[in-house]
Amino acid sequence: MDGPLGFWRRLGFGSRYFGLDDGLFSFDVSLAAFFMFVFVVLFSHKCLYFIRWLRFGVCTMNFYRRRFNLYFLPAVLCLLVSGCALWDREHAFGAVLRIHVESETSSAGSNKTISVLRSQPVQVNISTDPILTESDVIGAALLDTPGGGFAVEVKFEETAGWRLEQITSINPGKHLAIFAQWSAKPADGRWLAAPLINRRLGGSELTFTPDASRDEAEELVKALNVDAKRNAGLKDKQ
């Protein structure tokens, strides 16, 4: 008696149906092959992530160079596109424009003293709340003045022009304090002028001689026009 296993072998059951000439012990071969496969996979991962972690596109049994490049190329393109967007946004900074009116009172919080004109500084006490900002601008230009000088002309929208007209009409003899910044650099921003209010300013325009070089004035005008176009586009969407 050779038991149940000999019985199935005599019937040819193993070789006929499953190819198990040695009975159920043939499973031992497949089990060893499985563990060998697991070992190779783990070893390839070890080489990839620990030994060669600085080498991109290393070929292993579970890592194909061409497939890696297909994933790596879109990632690089996304980085380039985002970098270009950041670059454009930085160069489309626009401008900061703050126009304040001189104040006679010196109450803390609502007023402050500023210094205008670097060559001959002038102290002016102003209200901290601006009467006009860059959001009110619809255009700017650099004008040539007699004697080879230049001036900056800022045009405001209609409601801002009415506000400027009203404030200049009730504050004769005072100063307007004009602060501007034309790039993201903090150094490219200062108090540019403090023109005296000697008449009512109508027509929605303000012209002043800035405490800046001609190149800086050109940058300011360009930045103000960038803001004007941006504001116009936002209003059209609304």
Tell me what you see in this structure.
This protein is an alpha+beta fold. The protein has 2 domains: 89 residues, no CATH class; 142 residues, Gyrase A, domain 2. Helices cover 43% and strands 22% of the residues. The chain has 6 helices and 9 strands, in the order H-H-H-H-E-E-E-E-E-E-H-E-E-E-H. The protein has a 4-stranded antiparallel sheet with strand order 4-1-7-8. A 3-stranded antiparallel sheet has the order 5-6-9. Strands 2-3 form a two-stranded antiparallel ribbon. The chain is elongated. It starts with a helix and ends with a helix. About 6% of the residues have low confidence.
Q: What is the class of the largest domain in the CATH system?
A: Alpha Beta
Assigned CATH architecture of the largest domain? 2-Layer Sandwich
- Backbone CA Rg: 39 Å
Distance between the termini: 96 Å
Mean pLDDT: 77
Number of strands: 9
Number of domains: 2
Q: What order do the helices and strands follow?
A: HHHHEEEEEEHEEEH
Q: What characteristic shape results from the CA principal axes?
A: elongated
Coarse structural class:
alpha+beta
Count of separate DSSP helical elements = 6
- Which residue ranges are poorly predicted, with pLDDT under 50 across at least 5 consecutive positions? 13-19, 85-91
Widest sheet: strand ordering: 4-1-7-8
Could you tell me the strand content as a percent range?
Answer: 15-25%
Percent helix among the residues?
40-55%
The description of the largest β-sheet is: 4 strands, antiparallel
For this structure, the CATH topology of the largest domain is Gyrase A, domain 2
